[in-house]
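Q: Convert this sequence to structure tokens.
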Amino acid sequence: MCAEYSRFFGGPEGSVPEYTQPQFAEVLKKIFSDGIFSGITNELEVVETDPQALAVRVNTGEAWIQGFWYQNTAYLTKSLAAADPDNDRIDRIVLRLDTVTNFKISVEVLTGTPAGSPSPPELTQTASTYEISLAQVLVAEDATSVADEDITDEREYVAVSSHGSSHENGGSDEIDISDLDGLLYSTTVASSATPTPARASKRNAFTVTALAEGATFAAPSGTPAGLDSLVIRIKDNGTARSLGWNAIYRASSDLALPTTTVINKTMYCGFIYNTTDSKWDLIAFLDNI
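A:
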């Protein structure tokens, strides 16, 4: 019985080596963990439709599931089931890998069960069907539409795998992509009173998708190094929200830190870390996007 395996070879002249798709996936899933590729178009963000309806929109982006690649190049609108007249429910928007019947990855809606205290539906993660969650969606009783504040982001981002352990042995086989200096590290929240970016690479991004309250940005977690970059992207949920900033963020006479959002518009604040003064210096600002 063979105990050694190796792949993939073109073979000696005249031979035609053959490998199955599962054999390719078996190897490829050891390279990346499941999740969304950060920094690619709109990172499959789930948002309200325009105009609002009992549906959501899934933005463009790319993902990786169990050794298989997925890309969405246009906005997808996914309709939700009619609301229950008496109880709320929680749906899930998922990416589903089907390796047996349809042989594809697709965006699907998992419809929850109405209840006084509803829970989101469970993900299916088997050898033939494997789901990862993009977002939870609260469908309130008797609702006819959902808004950004009803959507809870559940995206996780692709990480690069190590070679020292395995899931089967109960070990952790992932190195966060943020450990690879110079690559973009991106995190997202829907809303928070104290949004906290993370410094985990030379290039960092932090997104607030639907700010529903006044917010004061906390000092980024992690240990920054000279000339690290941080881009903060902010959008409110349809109401202007006040903004405050920890003292570690520093403006200049040319650029001021924003103190309020612009309704339904996206703003960007770009910072560079100054090791001499231990400050994140604001070097770029855009609003009304």
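The mean pLDDT is 86.
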